[in-house]
Amino acid sequence: MQTPAPQVTWHKSSYSGSGGDCVEVAETSNGGRAIRDSKDTTRPGLRCAAPAWAAFVHGLKDSAHN
């Protein structure tokens, strides 16, 4: 696991509550995503390739409709 280059812009979910259990996501230069824990941004993030991220989002949308 590696954290992405510093020039990425991190975004916290709009569904984040006040409990602090959130993740932040940033788009990487190759169209993938980087994911990190919003409570400890000093820890390395997890990189996800673009096809894997698309499959993840698709799975979330499918589960929301079931």
Shape: flat
Mean pLDDT: 83
Q: How would you characterize the largest beta sheet?
A: 4 strands, antiparallel
Query: Using DSSP, what is the number of strands?
Result: 4
Low-confidence spans: none
Strand order of the largest sheet: 1-2-3-4
Number of helices: 1
What is shown here, in short?
With 66 residues, the protein is an alpha+beta fold. It has one helix at 50-64, and strands spanning 11-12, 23-27, 33-37, 46-48. Strands 1-2-3-4 form a four-stranded antiparallel beta sheet.
Describe this structure in words.
This protein has 66 residues and is of the alpha+beta class. It is 23% helix and 23% strand. The chain is built from 1 helix and 4 strands; from the N terminus they run E-E-E-E-H. It has a 4-stranded antiparallel beta sheet. Strand 2 (23-27) and strand 3 form a beta hairpin. The termini are far apart. 8% of the residues are buried.
What key attributes describe this structure?
alpha+beta; 4-stranded antiparallel sheet; 23% helix
